[in-house]
Every structure is written in C-alpha cells, then in structure tokens.
Design goal:
By secondary structure, the protein is of the alpha+beta class. 40% of the residues lie in helices and 20% in strands. The strands form 4 sheets. Strands 1-10-11-12-15-9-8-4 form an 8-stranded mixed β-sheet. A 3-stranded mixed β-sheet has the order 7-13-14, with no helix packed on it. Strands 2-3 form a two-stranded antiparallel ribbon. Helix 6 crosses helix 11. The longest helix has 36 residues.
C-alpha cells in the first residue's frame, strides 16, 4: 500500500476529502496479526521438535505441550479476526477512486477541462438548425411517443430508415475497428454478475445507476464491463500485449443522477447502442496505447466527416476508475453545444487489481496489466450528430458517403 500522504494528496486533486485513517489503521492491525501468526507458527514448529526429543529421551514434555495448546488456541482466534479485517479493508478500498496521472490538468469541474485539439469545422447554415428529435420525428424515423407508451420516458423506437441507419452505424464502426484498427470483435453477454461490476468500478459506488434482475444479474451499462472481465483471474503472456477488443452491445443505465437532464431526444436514454474499445496493455506502454485508442475512436468521426474536439478531463471531472481521460465531444448545431460522444480512459492497474488480471514479466514475476477503454462510438449520439450536422433546409439530412454502401447506396 502506498503512503497515506501520497494517496491523500492525489484524492484532494480530485476534490475529495477522503479520511484514510481507518484504512491505514486496519492495514497496520492486519500486518501485526500476520506477524503474530507467523511467529506462533514458527514457535509451534520449533517446539514440536523439542517435544519429540524429550519423549525420545524419556523426559516429561507435559509443560511444553500445555503451552502449545495455548498457542494453538490463539492461532484459532487470529484466523477469524484476520478475515474480518480483510473484509473491512476490501469494503473501504472499493470506495476509493483511482488516483490521477500527473499529466491530468488540476481542476474542480468540467469548466476546467483542457481542449487538446479540434477536427473539421463547424457546419454553417443559412437557416436556424433544428434539434435531432424534431428532424427525426418529422421524417418518421424516430418515435418517442409510442416508445413512452410501452416503456416510459428515455426510450425511443427507430423506424424504417432510422433503424437502418442505426444498424449501418454499428456495422461501420465494427468493420473499421476490426479491419483497420486491429481489434478483435467480441459478442459478450448483456448481463453480468456483481463481481464483474466490482471489477470495473461500477459497484458498489454506482449501484443506483444500474438495472438489476430478480436473479441478481445486472444489465450491462457498457461493454467495458464484460470485455474487461474476459481475463479475470488469468495471467497473460507478455508477448500478447497489447490485447485490443471491440464489441457492440446495447447499454442500460438508470440515469439516477440526471433527473430532468436531457429527457427529450437521444442524448440520455435508459437503453442505447454502443461500440466499445478495450485494451489490455503493458504498464510501460499504456499511455501510448491511450493515444492510439483515442485516435481509433476519432477515426470514426473523421470518416463520417463530423466536426468534433478532444478535451483532457481535469482531476475533478475524472471518472471513478480512470487515471486519465480524453473526452471526444461532437458538435451539435441543434443544441449549439459540444456533447461527449466518447470517453477514452487509461485505468492503469486499478481495474486489473480488482479483477486480478496479470502478465508474467521478463523476471518471471506476475505483474498487473493496465486496462484502457473508450467508446468507439456511442451509436445513438453519432446518429444525433449526423442528423444535426448534415441537416438541410427542407428538413431532410445527408447520409455520409462511408455509410451509403451499408444502406443499399
């Protein structure tokens, strides 16, 4: 465990005044108990030889045996106490977020995120640009009203050309990542157990944002969860790193903390489609891998011809599991704002410790891998950006050239 002052300073950069004293007190007690246990076991081994020697010499060993019975009784007491301390330590550790990388800008909120670069130019219109929901409903390709009848708010029905466009985007993204960017496609389960979500950091802190079944499974909030857990409790070969995986899944989020935000439209849905990118990287190369992963996500927008920018999240805006994150924000003319379409993060060894994913280094000793993830991309938000950036005065919109072959030209 790192020293308390270092961790505390890192958490303060995140804007968290987390009391680490109980954690370190428990850790100290755990170490003392372990030392006592080891000393008593060593004493047992020594005395066992003494007892054998005394018996062989025909001497009385009853006094030593009585002492050893006390030692055995104490050893039985230590076990449950160690288990209880380990449990308390684990529960406390699960509530502590990852520490930010030194290159992350220090700040309190998204207002202090740093713009790294932009691509393309904002589209110009000789009319007032419309919101995607208005465009989609007038064209009959999005139906929020009928979706609400069967499912409530924050759901949508894609109809006709809308359903085809959504499917085309999924196929285009998967083809790009597997054929050009070097990812292996995975089709994972859409439900996971609690251990999988603990491993990636969604549990226990963010349970209110998850949908849980009556049998104890959770619907995946992102494909990051099943993809990262593929190698749980495994030791990978160093030569196989980095491992790059991509997957399409529907994603399910309760959006418990966003009441009243983005209720209209596709921006914040309870169910949405996403193509995810996940990498398992060597610790020495994980920040190079982060740049590559971010570039792979950007390539989707570049091929579609959509204007966007990349920002570095400041310490106060970092996600729970991330050490460093780039947000890719696409321009939405109907909202006159940039909106996040992908978050690309290096979690370093944070998730690997929770999932026990390691690799064997040149010295033969297992070390934790670094895990990275990012949307490549959020499909619904890409749909939104196409409708809004490529809209025309008559209420229609243009289909990007790279998608036309997926739509029967």
């Amino acid at each position: 465990m790192e020293d308390k002052e270092t961790i505390q300073a890192m958490l303060l950069k995140r804007g968290m005044a987390f009391d680490l004293n109980p954690l370190f007190e428990l850790d100290t007690r755990r170490k003392l108990l372990q030392k006592e246990y080891d000393d008593l076991r060593a004493r047992q081994n020594e005395v066992s030889k003494e007892v054998q020697a005394l018996k062989k010499a025909g001497k009385d060993a009853s006094g030593i045996i009585a002492d050893m019975q006390k030692v055995a009784a104490r050893l039985k007491e230590i076990g449950p106490e160690q288990t209880e301390i380990e449990k308390k330590l684990d529960n406390l550790c699960l509530l502590i977020p990852n520490t930010p990388h030194l290159s992350v800008p220090v700040g309190k909120s998204s207002e202090e995120n740093r713009v790294e670069r932009t691509w393309g130019e904002k589209p110009k219109f000789d009319f007032t640009p419309k919101d995607h929901s208005e465009i989609g409903e007038k064209l009959g390709i999005l139906d929020f009203e009928r979706a609400a009848k069967m499912s409530g708010s924050r759901f949508v029905i894609y109809k006709g050309a809308g359903a085809k466009l959504e499917r085309a985007l999924i196929n285009f993204m998967l083809d790009l990542h597997t054929k050009e960017n070097g990812y292996t496609e995975i089709l994972p389960p859409f439900m996971v157990n609690p251990l999988a979500l603990i491993g990636t950091g969604q549990l226990p802190k963010f349970e209110e944002d998850l949908f849980k079944t009556t049998e104890g499974h959770y619907l995946v909030p992102t494909a990051e969860v099943p993809l990262t857990n593929i190698y749980r409790d495994e030791i990978l070969k160093e030569g196989d790193l980095p491992i790059s995986l991509t997957a399409y899944t529907p994603c399910f989020r309760a959006e418990a903390g966003s009441y009243g935000k983005d209720v209209k439209g596709l921006i914040r849905q309870h169910q949405f489609n996403k193509v995810e990118l996940v990498k398992f990287a060597h610790p020495e190369n994980s920040y190079t891998a982060l740049e590559k992963l971010t570039g792979d996500a950007e390539k989707v927008l570049q091929k579609l011809g959509l204007h966007y920018r990349v920002v570095s999240l400041c310490t106060g805006d970092l996600g729970f599991s991330a050490s460093k994150t780039y947000d890719i924000e696409v321009w939405l003319p109907g909202q006159n704002a940039y909106r996040e379409i992908s978050s690309c993060s290096n979690c370093e060894a944070f998730q690997a410790r929770r999932t026990n994913i390691r690799f064997k280094g040149k010295d033969g000793k297992p070390k934790f891998v670094h895990t990275l993830n990012g949307s490549g991309l959020a499909v619904g938000r890409t749909f939104v950006a196409i409708l809004e950036q490529f809209q025309k005065a008559d209420g229609t919109f243009e289909i990007p050239k790279v998608l036309q072959s997926y739509l029967g030209n």
